Amino acid sequence: MEMNKKDIIRLLEQIAVLLELKGENSFKIAAYSRAAQNIERDSRALSEIDDFTKIKGIGKGTSSVIMQYIHDGKSEALEELKKQVPAGLIPLLQVPGLGGKKLSRLYQELNVTDAESLREALVSKEVEALPGFGKKSAEKLLASLQEMGKRPERLPIAVVLPIVEKLNQHLETIPEIRAFSIAGSVRRMRETVKDIDFIIATEQPDIVGNKLLDIENVKEVIAKGQTKVSVILAEQYDINVDFRMVKENEFATTLHHFTGSSEHNVHMRQLAKSHDEKISEYGVENVASQEILQFTDEEQFYAHFNLRYIPPELREDSGEIEAFAERKIAEGLLHLSHIKGDLHMHTTWSDGAQSLEEMAEAARRKGYEYIAITDHSKFLRVANGLDETRLRKQKEEINRLNERYADLHIFSGVEMDILPDGSLDFSDKFLREMDFVIAAIHSSFSQSQEQIMTRLKNAMNNPYVSLIAHPTGRLIGKRDGYAIDMEELIATAAETNTALEINANPNRLDLSAAWAKKAQEKGVVLSIDTDAHNYSMLEDMKYGVATARKGWISKNTVMNTWTAEKIKSFCNHKRMIEK
DNA sequence: GCCGTTTTCGGCCCGACTGTTTTCAGTCG
Question: Which CATH superfamily is domain A5-147 in?
Protein backbone atom coordinates (compact mmCIF):
# COMPACT_ATOMS: atom_id res chain seq x y z
CA MET A 1 0.00 0.00 0.00
CA GLU A 2 1.26 3.41 -0.96
CA MET A 3 1.56 5.35 2.27
CA ASN A 4 1.40 9.11 2.60
CA LYS A 5 1.75 11.61 5.40
CA LYS A 6 -1.96 11.78 6.04
CA ASP A 7 -1.93 8.06 6.85
CA ILE A 8 0.79 8.58 9.44
CA ILE A 9 -1.03 11.55 10.93
CA ARG A 10 -4.25 9.55 11.13
CA LEU A 11 -2.42 6.68 12.80
CA LEU A 12 -0.96 8.89 15.52
CA GLU A 13 -4.26 10.67 16.10
CA GLN A 14 -6.08 7.36 16.36
CA ILE A 15 -3.58 6.14 18.89
CA ALA A 16 -4.02 9.34 20.89
CA VAL A 17 -7.80 8.98 20.98
CA LEU A 18 -7.60 5.34 22.01
CA LEU A 19 -5.08 6.15 24.73
CA GLU A 20 -7.43 8.83 25.98
CA LEU A 21 -10.22 6.27 26.19
CA LYS A 22 -7.93 3.99 28.12
CA GLY A 23 -7.53 6.82 30.62
CA GLU A 24 -3.81 6.96 29.96
CA ASN A 25 -1.52 9.68 31.24
CA SER A 26 -2.61 12.90 29.56
CA PHE A 27 0.96 13.88 28.70
CA LYS A 28 1.45 10.64 26.85
CA ILE A 29 -1.71 11.33 24.88
CA ALA A 30 -0.56 14.86 24.18
CA ALA A 31 2.78 13.52 22.99
CA TYR A 32 1.06 11.50 20.24
CA SER A 33 -1.18 14.37 19.11
CA ARG A 34 1.77 16.74 19.14
CA ALA A 35 3.75 14.30 17.04
CA ALA A 36 0.88 14.16 14.53
CA GLN A 37 0.68 17.96 14.47
CA ASN A 38 4.38 18.40 13.92
CA ILE A 39 4.41 15.94 11.05
CA GLU A 40 1.52 17.76 9.44
CA ARG A 41 3.37 21.02 9.83
CA ASP A 42 6.57 19.66 8.30
CA SER A 43 6.48 20.73 4.67
CA ARG A 44 8.37 17.71 3.36
CA ALA A 45 6.70 14.74 1.66
CA LEU A 46 6.84 11.43 3.48
CA SER A 47 9.55 10.09 1.16
CA GLU A 48 11.80 13.03 2.00
CA ILE A 49 11.80 12.34 5.75
CA ASP A 50 14.54 9.90 6.65
CA ASP A 51 14.72 10.33 10.40
CA PHE A 52 11.52 11.06 12.30
CA THR A 53 13.29 11.60 15.62
CA LYS A 54 14.73 14.80 14.15
CA ILE A 55 11.20 16.25 14.13
CA LYS A 56 10.45 18.03 17.38
CA GLY A 57 8.21 16.07 19.71
CA ILE A 58 9.06 12.71 18.15
CA GLY A 59 11.40 10.44 20.01
CA LYS A 60 12.35 6.81 19.82
CA GLY A 61 8.93 5.44 20.78
CA THR A 62 6.77 7.33 18.31
CA SER A 63 9.36 6.97 15.60
CA SER A 64 9.42 3.19 15.87
CA VAL A 65 5.60 3.10 15.73
CA ILE A 66 5.75 5.15 12.53
CA MET A 67 8.55 3.10 10.99
CA GLN A 68 6.75 -0.14 11.65
CA TYR A 69 3.57 1.25 10.09
CA ILE A 70 5.41 2.36 6.98
CA HIS A 71 7.23 -0.94 6.73
CA ASP A 72 4.39 -3.39 7.46
CA GLY A 73 1.39 -1.34 6.41
CA LYS A 74 -0.14 -1.87 9.83
CA SER A 75 0.68 -0.94 13.38
CA GLU A 76 0.94 -3.34 16.27
CA ALA A 77 0.49 -0.53 18.75
CA LEU A 78 -2.77 0.49 17.07
CA GLU A 79 -4.07 -3.08 16.68
CA GLU A 80 -3.34 -3.75 20.33
CA LEU A 81 -5.25 -0.64 21.43
CA LYS A 82 -8.15 -1.49 19.16
CA LYS A 83 -8.45 -4.84 20.92
CA GLN A 84 -8.66 -3.07 24.25
CA VAL A 85 -11.05 -0.27 23.32
CA PRO A 86 -14.38 -0.73 21.49
CA ALA A 87 -14.72 1.53 18.45
CA GLY A 88 -18.19 2.63 19.57
CA LEU A 89 -16.68 4.57 22.47
CA ILE A 90 -14.84 7.01 20.19
CA PRO A 91 -17.83 9.20 19.23
CA LEU A 92 -18.87 9.29 22.89
CA LEU A 93 -15.86 11.49 23.64
CA GLN A 94 -17.93 14.25 22.03
CA VAL A 95 -20.62 14.01 24.71
CA PRO A 96 -20.20 17.06 26.96
CA GLY A 97 -19.04 15.96 30.38
CA LEU A 98 -17.44 12.75 29.15
CA GLY A 99 -13.68 12.56 28.83
CA GLY A 100 -11.33 9.65 28.47
CA LYS A 101 -11.14 8.80 32.15
CA LYS A 102 -14.86 8.63 32.78
CA LEU A 103 -15.60 6.77 29.55
CA SER A 104 -12.90 4.28 30.34
CA ARG A 105 -14.50 3.56 33.70
CA LEU A 106 -17.96 3.25 32.15
CA TYR A 107 -16.53 0.68 29.76
CA GLN A 108 -14.63 -1.28 32.33
CA GLU A 109 -17.20 -1.28 35.10
CA LEU A 110 -20.50 -1.19 33.23
CA ASN A 111 -19.41 -2.56 29.87
CA VAL A 112 -20.57 0.55 28.03
CA THR A 113 -19.35 0.16 24.45
CA ASP A 114 -21.43 2.59 22.40
CA ALA A 115 -24.19 5.21 22.57
CA GLU A 116 -26.92 2.59 22.97
CA SER A 117 -25.30 0.75 25.88
CA LEU A 118 -24.53 4.09 27.55
CA ARG A 119 -28.17 5.07 27.25
CA GLU A 120 -29.23 1.77 28.82
CA ALA A 121 -26.78 2.15 31.68
CA LEU A 122 -28.06 5.67 32.31
CA VAL A 123 -31.72 4.70 32.23
CA SER A 124 -31.18 1.70 34.51
CA LYS A 125 -29.46 4.08 36.99
CA GLU A 126 -26.28 2.01 36.97
CA VAL A 127 -24.22 5.05 36.08
CA GLU A 128 -25.32 7.21 38.98
CA ALA A 129 -24.53 4.39 41.40
CA LEU A 130 -20.91 4.47 40.30
CA PRO A 131 -18.52 6.31 42.65
CA GLY A 132 -17.50 9.64 41.15
CA PHE A 133 -20.73 9.91 39.18
CA GLY A 134 -24.04 10.98 40.64
CA LYS A 135 -27.66 11.66 39.90
CA LYS A 136 -27.00 15.06 38.44
CA SER A 137 -24.27 13.96 36.05
CA ALA A 138 -26.38 11.03 34.89
CA GLU A 139 -29.25 13.37 34.06
CA LYS A 140 -26.96 15.71 32.16
CA LEU A 141 -25.36 12.87 30.24
CA LEU A 142 -28.73 11.50 29.20
CA ALA A 143 -29.83 14.93 28.03
CA SER A 144 -26.71 15.59 25.98
CA LEU A 145 -26.88 12.10 24.53
CA GLN A 146 -30.36 12.94 23.19
CA GLU A 147 -29.05 16.20 21.71
CA MET A 148 -26.19 14.47 19.90
CA GLY A 149 -26.66 14.01 16.21
CA LYS A 150 -29.31 16.70 15.94
CA ARG A 151 -26.85 19.07 14.31
CA PRO A 152 -23.42 18.91 12.77
CA GLU A 153 -20.65 19.20 15.33
CA ARG A 154 -19.07 22.16 13.58
CA LEU A 155 -20.92 24.73 11.49
CA PRO A 156 -19.51 26.26 8.30
CA ILE A 157 -18.26 29.75 9.02
CA ALA A 158 -20.62 31.15 6.39
CA VAL A 159 -23.56 30.08 8.58
CA VAL A 160 -22.07 31.74 11.64
CA LEU A 161 -20.79 35.06 10.28
CA PRO A 162 -24.23 36.66 9.76
CA ILE A 163 -25.16 35.71 13.34
CA VAL A 164 -21.94 37.31 14.60
CA GLU A 165 -22.81 40.43 12.61
CA LYS A 166 -26.23 40.59 14.28
CA LEU A 167 -24.66 40.13 17.73
CA ASN A 168 -22.15 42.89 16.99
CA GLN A 169 -25.04 45.22 16.27
CA HIS A 170 -26.81 44.26 19.49
CA LEU A 171 -23.70 44.82 21.61
CA GLU A 172 -23.25 48.26 20.02
CA THR A 173 -26.54 49.33 21.57
CA ILE A 174 -25.54 48.57 25.18
CA PRO A 175 -24.02 51.73 26.68
CA GLU A 176 -22.53 49.94 29.72
CA ILE A 177 -20.15 48.05 27.43
CA ARG A 178 -16.75 49.77 27.24
CA ALA A 179 -15.32 47.50 24.59
CA PHE A 180 -16.16 44.16 23.02
CA SER A 181 -14.78 41.77 20.47
CA ILE A 182 -15.52 38.48 18.82
CA ALA A 183 -13.02 35.84 19.95
CA GLY A 184 -12.53 32.10 19.41
CA SER A 185 -12.28 30.29 16.12
CA VAL A 186 -14.51 32.82 14.37
CA ARG A 187 -11.92 35.50 15.06
CA ARG A 188 -9.22 33.14 13.83
CA MET A 189 -11.28 32.61 10.67
CA ARG A 190 -11.45 28.86 10.90
CA GLU A 191 -13.51 27.30 8.09
CA THR A 192 -15.88 25.68 10.53
CA VAL A 193 -16.70 26.66 14.11
CA LYS A 194 -18.37 25.07 17.09
CA ASP A 195 -19.56 28.07 19.04
CA ILE A 196 -19.34 31.83 19.23
CA ASP A 197 -17.29 33.67 21.88
CA PHE A 198 -17.46 37.34 22.75
CA ILE A 199 -15.30 39.23 25.23
CA ILE A 200 -16.88 42.27 26.84
CA ALA A 201 -15.22 44.94 28.96
CA THR A 202 -17.62 46.43 31.47
CA GLU A 203 -17.79 47.69 35.04
CA GLN A 204 -21.48 46.73 35.27
CA PRO A 205 -21.73 43.02 34.48
CA ASP A 206 -25.19 42.74 36.06
CA ILE A 207 -26.79 45.28 33.78
CA VAL A 208 -24.94 44.04 30.73
CA GLY A 209 -25.80 40.46 31.57
CA ASN A 210 -29.50 41.26 31.63
CA LYS A 211 -29.35 43.16 28.38
CA LEU A 212 -27.61 40.24 26.72
CA LEU A 213 -30.70 38.16 27.33
CA ASP A 214 -32.70 40.51 25.09
CA ILE A 215 -30.93 39.12 22.07
CA GLU A 216 -33.28 37.74 19.46
CA ASN A 217 -33.83 33.98 19.28
CA VAL A 218 -32.41 33.10 22.70
CA LYS A 219 -33.69 29.59 23.17
CA GLU A 220 -31.99 28.69 26.42
CA VAL A 221 -29.84 30.38 29.04
CA ILE A 222 -27.13 27.95 30.07
CA ALA A 223 -25.34 30.15 32.57
CA LYS A 224 -25.63 33.69 33.82
CA GLY A 225 -23.15 34.99 36.33
CA GLN A 226 -20.80 37.86 37.03
CA THR A 227 -18.20 36.77 34.53
CA LYS A 228 -20.06 34.71 31.97
CA VAL A 229 -23.36 34.62 30.18
CA SER A 230 -23.90 31.58 28.02
CA VAL A 231 -26.93 31.12 25.79
CA ILE A 232 -28.15 28.91 22.99
CA LEU A 233 -29.53 30.77 19.99
CA ALA A 234 -32.12 29.08 17.82
CA GLU A 235 -30.92 30.08 14.37
CA GLN A 236 -30.79 27.84 11.31
CA TYR A 237 -29.10 25.47 13.75
CA ASP A 238 -28.88 25.84 17.53
CA ILE A 239 -25.64 27.57 18.36
CA ASN A 240 -23.95 28.24 21.68
CA VAL A 241 -22.82 31.81 22.36
CA ASP A 242 -20.56 32.63 25.33
CA PHE A 243 -20.12 36.19 26.54
CA ARG A 244 -17.21 36.72 28.93
CA MET A 245 -17.37 39.90 30.97
CA VAL A 246 -14.17 41.33 32.42
CA LYS A 247 -12.79 44.60 33.68
CA GLU A 248 -11.31 46.92 31.11
CA ASN A 249 -7.72 46.33 32.21
CA GLU A 250 -8.16 42.57 31.75
CA PHE A 251 -9.74 42.89 28.31
CA ALA A 252 -6.58 42.46 26.21
CA THR A 253 -5.32 39.33 27.96
CA THR A 254 -8.79 37.79 28.16
CA LEU A 255 -9.33 38.47 24.46
CA HIS A 256 -6.01 36.84 23.71
CA HIS A 257 -6.83 33.88 25.90
CA PHE A 258 -10.23 33.17 24.37
CA THR A 259 -9.11 33.82 20.83
CA GLY A 260 -6.71 30.89 21.12
CA SER A 261 -5.88 28.63 19.54
CA SER A 262 -5.16 26.63 22.64
CA GLU A 263 -1.94 25.44 20.95
CA HIS A 264 -0.92 29.05 20.42
CA ASN A 265 -1.69 29.80 24.07
CA VAL A 266 0.33 26.85 25.28
CA HIS A 267 3.29 28.02 23.26
CA MET A 268 2.97 31.59 24.56
CA ARG A 269 2.81 30.29 28.11
CA GLN A 270 5.91 28.21 27.62
CA LEU A 271 7.63 31.31 26.33
CA ALA A 272 6.48 33.27 29.39
CA LYS A 273 7.56 30.52 31.70
CA SER A 274 11.08 30.61 30.32
CA HIS A 275 11.16 34.25 31.50
CA ASP A 276 9.73 33.34 34.91
CA GLU A 277 6.36 34.74 33.99
CA LYS A 278 2.89 33.24 33.97
CA ILE A 279 0.16 34.06 31.47
CA SER A 280 -3.47 33.78 32.43
CA GLU A 281 -6.56 35.47 31.06
CA TYR A 282 -6.16 38.15 33.71
CA GLY A 283 -2.66 39.26 32.90
CA VAL A 284 0.98 38.33 32.93
CA GLU A 285 2.34 37.52 36.37
CA ASN A 286 5.96 37.89 37.36
CA VAL A 287 6.46 34.73 39.37
CA ALA A 288 9.12 36.20 41.67
CA SER A 289 7.40 39.46 42.56
CA GLN A 290 3.82 38.23 41.98
CA GLU A 291 3.19 41.50 40.25
CA ILE A 292 0.53 41.26 37.52
CA LEU A 293 1.03 43.16 34.31
CA GLN A 294 -1.92 44.26 32.23
CA PHE A 295 -2.09 45.69 28.75
CA THR A 296 -4.25 48.17 26.89
CA ASP A 297 -4.35 45.98 23.78
CA GLU A 298 -2.97 42.80 22.25
CA GLU A 299 -0.20 44.75 20.48
CA GLN A 300 1.25 45.63 23.88
CA PHE A 301 0.76 42.12 25.12
CA TYR A 302 2.85 40.71 22.29
CA ALA A 303 5.35 43.54 22.56
CA HIS A 304 5.97 42.51 26.16
CA PHE A 305 7.35 39.23 24.77
CA ASN A 306 9.33 41.03 22.08
CA LEU A 307 6.90 39.98 19.39
CA ARG A 308 5.16 41.90 16.66
CA TYR A 309 1.37 41.81 16.81
CA ILE A 310 0.30 38.38 15.64
CA PRO A 311 -3.02 38.63 13.78
CA PRO A 312 -5.69 36.22 15.09
CA GLU A 313 -5.86 34.30 11.81
CA LEU A 314 -2.27 33.13 12.30
CA ARG A 315 -2.59 31.96 15.88
CA GLU A 316 -2.48 28.23 15.23
CA ASP A 317 1.01 27.55 16.62
CA SER A 318 2.36 26.88 13.18
CA GLY A 319 5.55 28.84 13.63
CA GLU A 320 4.01 32.30 14.01
CA ILE A 321 5.58 32.95 17.40
CA GLU A 322 9.10 32.47 16.03
CA ALA A 323 8.30 34.29 12.81
CA PHE A 324 6.81 37.38 14.44
CA ALA A 325 9.93 37.96 16.42
CA GLU A 326 11.13 39.31 13.09
CA ARG A 327 10.06 42.59 11.59
CA LYS A 328 10.13 41.29 8.02
CA ILE A 329 7.26 38.82 8.13
CA ALA A 330 4.97 41.05 10.12
CA GLU A 331 5.35 43.87 7.65
CA GLY A 332 5.04 41.81 4.46
CA LEU A 333 1.75 40.22 5.51
CA LEU A 334 -1.32 41.09 3.46
CA HIS A 335 -3.84 43.53 4.94
CA LEU A 336 -7.32 44.46 3.72
CA SER A 337 -6.18 48.01 3.06
CA HIS A 338 -3.73 46.71 0.44
CA ILE A 339 -6.56 45.52 -1.82
CA LYS A 340 -6.93 47.85 -4.79
CA GLY A 341 -9.71 46.09 -6.65
CA ASP A 342 -11.89 43.04 -7.21
CA LEU A 343 -11.28 40.92 -10.30
CA HIS A 344 -14.29 38.59 -10.26
CA MET A 345 -17.91 39.78 -10.23
CA HIS A 346 -21.19 39.35 -12.05
CA THR A 347 -23.86 41.73 -13.34
CA THR A 348 -27.39 41.55 -14.73
CA TRP A 349 -25.80 40.62 -18.05
CA SER A 350 -25.56 37.07 -16.67
CA ASP A 351 -26.82 36.04 -13.22
CA GLY A 352 -25.95 39.09 -11.10
CA ALA A 353 -28.50 41.24 -9.30
CA GLN A 354 -27.01 44.63 -10.14
CA SER A 355 -26.26 46.32 -13.46
CA LEU A 356 -22.76 46.86 -14.71
CA GLU A 357 -22.91 50.54 -13.91
CA GLU A 358 -24.29 49.87 -10.43
CA MET A 359 -21.44 47.47 -9.66
CA ALA A 360 -18.91 49.99 -10.96
CA GLU A 361 -20.41 52.73 -8.79
CA ALA A 362 -20.29 50.43 -5.76
CA ALA A 363 -16.62 49.73 -6.45
CA ARG A 364 -15.93 53.47 -6.68
CA ARG A 365 -17.63 54.02 -3.34
CA LYS A 366 -15.32 51.38 -1.89
CA GLY A 367 -12.37 53.35 -3.22
CA TYR A 368 -11.21 50.62 -5.59
CA GLU A 369 -8.84 51.59 -8.40
CA TYR A 370 -10.09 48.88 -10.73
CA ILE A 371 -12.48 45.97 -11.12
CA ALA A 372 -12.98 43.21 -13.65
CA ILE A 373 -16.47 42.47 -14.87
CA THR A 374 -16.48 38.72 -15.35
CA ASP A 375 -19.92 37.43 -16.28
CA HIS A 376 -20.47 33.79 -17.14
CA SER A 377 -19.81 32.43 -20.63
CA LYS A 378 -22.33 30.94 -23.06
CA PHE A 379 -22.01 27.31 -21.87
CA LEU A 380 -23.64 28.21 -18.58
CA ARG A 381 -27.20 28.63 -19.89
CA VAL A 382 -28.79 28.53 -16.43
CA ALA A 383 -26.80 31.63 -15.54
CA ASN A 384 -27.63 33.40 -18.79
CA GLY A 385 -24.02 33.10 -19.92
CA LEU A 386 -22.77 35.52 -22.59
CA ASP A 387 -21.75 34.56 -26.14
CA GLU A 388 -19.19 36.43 -28.26
CA THR A 389 -21.74 38.94 -29.56
CA ARG A 390 -23.05 39.92 -26.13
CA LEU A 391 -19.55 40.09 -24.66
CA ARG A 392 -18.49 42.50 -27.44
CA LYS A 393 -21.56 44.58 -26.71
CA GLN A 394 -20.79 44.56 -23.00
CA LYS A 395 -17.27 45.67 -23.78
CA GLU A 396 -18.66 48.74 -25.57
CA GLU A 397 -20.54 49.70 -22.43
CA ILE A 398 -17.42 49.15 -20.35
CA ASN A 399 -15.45 51.40 -22.71
CA ARG A 400 -18.06 54.14 -22.31
CA LEU A 401 -17.86 53.89 -18.51
CA ASN A 402 -14.07 53.87 -18.59
CA GLU A 403 -14.15 57.14 -20.49
CA ARG A 404 -16.43 58.62 -17.88
CA TYR A 405 -14.47 57.51 -14.76
CA ALA A 406 -11.11 59.03 -13.97
CA ASP A 407 -10.83 57.12 -10.68
CA LEU A 408 -11.81 53.58 -11.71
CA HIS A 409 -10.57 51.29 -14.44
CA ILE A 410 -12.88 48.47 -15.53
CA PHE A 411 -11.30 45.39 -17.08
CA SER A 412 -13.49 43.78 -19.64
CA GLY A 413 -13.44 40.18 -18.49
CA VAL A 414 -15.26 36.89 -18.55
CA GLU A 415 -15.59 33.85 -16.30
CA MET A 416 -15.23 31.26 -19.01
CA ASP A 417 -16.39 27.70 -18.51
CA ILE A 418 -13.99 24.82 -18.88
CA LEU A 419 -16.23 22.32 -20.67
CA PRO A 420 -16.60 18.67 -19.62
CA ASP A 421 -14.53 17.48 -22.56
CA GLY A 422 -11.65 19.73 -21.54
CA SER A 423 -12.13 22.34 -24.24
CA LEU A 424 -12.75 26.00 -23.50
CA ASP A 425 -15.93 27.90 -24.18
CA PHE A 426 -14.24 30.42 -26.53
CA SER A 427 -11.58 30.33 -29.23
CA ASP A 428 -8.19 31.92 -28.67
CA LYS A 429 -9.01 34.33 -31.43
CA PHE A 430 -11.95 35.67 -29.46
CA LEU A 431 -10.27 35.53 -26.06
CA ARG A 432 -7.61 37.87 -27.35
CA GLU A 433 -10.25 40.63 -27.37
CA MET A 434 -10.82 40.27 -23.62
CA ASP A 435 -8.77 42.14 -21.01
CA PHE A 436 -9.05 39.52 -18.29
CA VAL A 437 -10.01 35.88 -18.68
CA ILE A 438 -10.95 33.70 -15.71
CA ALA A 439 -11.47 29.99 -16.31
CA ALA A 440 -13.64 27.84 -14.06
CA ILE A 441 -15.34 24.47 -13.79
CA HIS A 442 -19.10 24.55 -13.21
CA SER A 443 -20.11 21.15 -14.60
CA SER A 444 -19.40 17.41 -14.49
CA PHE A 445 -18.02 17.54 -10.95
CA SER A 446 -17.96 13.79 -10.62
CA GLN A 447 -15.37 13.13 -13.32
CA SER A 448 -12.20 11.20 -12.48
CA GLN A 449 -9.21 13.08 -11.15
CA GLU A 450 -7.49 12.51 -14.44
CA GLN A 451 -10.32 14.11 -16.42
CA ILE A 452 -10.60 17.04 -14.02
CA MET A 453 -6.86 17.66 -14.16
CA THR A 454 -6.87 17.51 -17.96
CA ARG A 455 -9.55 20.20 -18.00
CA LEU A 456 -7.70 22.45 -15.55
CA LYS A 457 -4.35 22.00 -17.25
CA ASN A 458 -5.85 22.78 -20.66
CA ALA A 459 -7.18 26.01 -19.23
CA MET A 460 -3.89 26.96 -17.57
CA ASN A 461 -1.93 26.22 -20.73
CA ASN A 462 -4.09 28.63 -22.67
CA PRO A 463 -2.19 31.92 -23.10
CA TYR A 464 -5.28 34.05 -22.52
CA VAL A 465 -6.39 32.46 -19.24
CA SER A 466 -4.96 34.57 -16.40
CA LEU A 467 -6.79 33.08 -13.43
CA ILE A 468 -8.45 29.86 -12.28
CA ALA A 469 -11.51 30.67 -10.19
CA HIS A 470 -12.49 28.67 -7.07
CA PRO A 471 -9.97 25.97 -8.00
CA THR A 472 -11.45 23.05 -6.03
CA GLY A 473 -15.16 23.82 -6.40
CA ARG A 474 -15.86 23.01 -2.77
CA LEU A 475 -18.68 24.44 -0.68
CA ILE A 476 -17.64 24.28 2.96
CA GLY A 477 -19.72 21.74 4.86
CA LYS A 478 -21.89 21.03 1.81
CA ARG A 479 -19.79 19.73 -1.05
CA ASP A 480 -16.25 18.47 -1.25
CA GLY A 481 -15.47 19.76 -4.71
CA TYR A 482 -14.16 17.75 -7.60
CA ALA A 483 -11.26 15.29 -7.57
CA ILE A 484 -8.17 17.37 -7.89
CA ASP A 485 -4.44 16.86 -7.55
CA MET A 486 -3.56 20.11 -5.83
CA GLU A 487 0.21 19.62 -5.97
CA GLU A 488 -0.04 19.24 -9.73
CA LEU A 489 -2.43 22.17 -10.08
CA ILE A 490 -0.04 24.41 -8.16
CA ALA A 491 2.98 23.21 -10.13
CA THR A 492 1.17 23.86 -13.42
CA ALA A 493 0.00 27.28 -12.27
CA ALA A 494 3.61 28.16 -11.47
CA GLU A 495 4.88 26.85 -14.81
CA THR A 496 2.26 28.59 -16.92
CA ASN A 497 2.12 31.90 -15.05
CA THR A 498 -1.53 31.39 -14.25
CA ALA A 499 -2.88 32.94 -11.07
CA LEU A 500 -5.07 30.99 -8.65
CA GLU A 501 -8.04 32.49 -6.87
CA ILE A 502 -8.84 32.71 -3.22
CA ASN A 503 -12.58 33.01 -3.64
CA ALA A 504 -13.70 35.22 -0.75
CA ASN A 505 -17.24 33.91 -0.56
CA PRO A 506 -17.38 32.42 2.96
CA ASN A 507 -19.15 29.36 1.58
CA ARG A 508 -16.14 28.68 -0.62
CA LEU A 509 -12.86 30.15 0.70
CA ASP A 510 -11.31 28.36 -2.22
CA LEU A 511 -8.29 28.04 -2.27
CA SER A 512 -8.15 27.26 1.42
CA ALA A 513 -5.55 28.94 3.62
CA ALA A 514 -3.38 25.83 3.65
CA TRP A 515 -3.34 25.44 -0.12
CA ALA A 516 -2.82 29.13 -0.69
CA LYS A 517 0.25 28.88 1.51
CA LYS A 518 1.61 26.01 -0.58
CA ALA A 519 0.88 27.95 -3.77
CA GLN A 520 2.77 30.98 -2.50
CA GLU A 521 5.74 28.79 -1.58
CA LYS A 522 5.85 27.59 -5.19
CA GLY A 523 5.76 31.15 -6.51
CA VAL A 524 2.16 31.14 -7.74
CA VAL A 525 0.38 34.50 -7.99
CA LEU A 526 -2.94 34.69 -6.14
CA SER A 527 -6.02 36.83 -6.66
CA ILE A 528 -8.55 37.41 -3.89
CA ASP A 529 -11.98 37.98 -5.37
CA THR A 530 -15.52 38.11 -4.11
CA ASP A 531 -17.31 36.57 -7.10
CA ALA A 532 -20.00 39.08 -6.10
CA HIS A 533 -23.46 38.61 -7.58
CA ASN A 534 -24.76 41.76 -5.86
CA TYR A 535 -23.61 44.86 -3.93
CA SER A 536 -23.40 43.33 -0.50
CA MET A 537 -21.25 40.41 -1.61
CA LEU A 538 -18.50 42.88 -2.47
CA GLU A 539 -18.04 43.09 1.30
CA ASP A 540 -16.89 39.46 1.44
CA MET A 541 -13.40 40.68 0.47
CA LYS A 542 -12.46 40.79 4.17
CA TYR A 543 -13.06 37.04 4.49
CA GLY A 544 -10.86 36.34 1.50
CA VAL A 545 -8.12 38.52 2.97
CA ALA A 546 -8.45 36.79 6.36
CA THR A 547 -8.15 33.41 4.67
CA ALA A 548 -5.04 34.61 2.84
CA ARG A 549 -3.54 35.88 6.09
CA LYS A 550 -4.27 32.53 7.69
CA GLY A 551 -2.10 31.10 4.91
CA TRP A 552 0.68 33.63 5.62
CA ILE A 553 0.13 35.30 2.26
CA SER A 554 2.18 38.42 1.70
CA LYS A 555 0.99 41.50 -0.12
CA ASN A 556 3.24 40.99 -3.15
CA THR A 557 1.79 37.56 -3.89
CA VAL A 558 -1.69 38.97 -4.43
CA MET A 559 -2.34 40.50 -7.84
CA ASN A 560 -5.19 42.74 -6.75
CA THR A 561 -2.82 44.65 -4.51
CA TRP A 562 -0.91 45.62 -7.65
CA THR A 563 -1.53 48.60 -9.90
CA ALA A 564 -3.81 48.16 -12.92
CA GLU A 565 -0.74 48.54 -15.12
CA LYS A 566 1.06 45.68 -13.43
CA ILE A 567 -1.99 43.44 -13.79
CA LYS A 568 -2.10 44.24 -17.51
CA SER A 569 1.52 43.35 -17.94
CA PHE A 570 1.06 40.11 -15.97
CA CYS A 571 -1.69 39.06 -18.40
CA ASN A 572 0.24 40.25 -21.45
CA HIS A 573 3.41 38.52 -20.34
CA LYS A 574 1.69 35.14 -20.51
CA ARG A 575 0.21 35.97 -23.90
CA MET A 576 3.64 36.91 -25.24
CA ILE A 577 5.68 33.97 -23.99
CA GLU A 578 3.17 31.33 -24.95
CA LYS A 579 2.50 32.54 -28.47
C1' DG B 1 5.86 9.69 25.26
C1' DC B 2 9.28 13.59 25.07
C1' DC B 3 12.76 16.40 26.86
C1' DG B 4 17.15 18.32 29.05
C1' DT B 5 23.55 24.30 30.48
C1' DT B 6 19.02 22.36 36.80
C1' DT B 7 20.02 16.04 31.45
C1' DT B 8 18.44 9.82 32.66
C1' DC B 9 14.10 11.85 36.51
C1' DG B 10 10.39 14.63 37.04
C1' DG B 11 8.32 17.74 34.93
C1' DC B 12 5.04 18.74 30.93
C1' DC B 13 0.10 25.82 30.39
C1' DC B 14 -3.48 27.99 33.36
C1' DG B 15 -7.70 28.73 35.72
C1' DA B 16 -12.80 28.04 36.31
C1' DC B 17 -16.38 25.16 37.08
C1' DT B 18 -18.88 21.06 38.39
C1' DG B 19 -20.22 17.49 41.06
C1' DT B 20 -18.72 14.86 44.05
C1' DT B 21 -16.41 15.12 47.55
C1' DT B 22 -14.53 16.16 53.19
C1' DT B 23 -9.80 18.09 49.98
C1' DC B 24 -10.29 16.81 44.91
C1' DA B 25 -10.53 14.66 40.14
C1' DG B 26 -12.25 15.35 35.78
C1' DT B 27 -13.60 18.26 32.15
C1' DC B 28 -13.47 22.32 29.51
C1' DG B 29 -11.90 26.31 26.96
Answer: DNA polymerase beta, N-terminal domain-like (1.10.150.110)
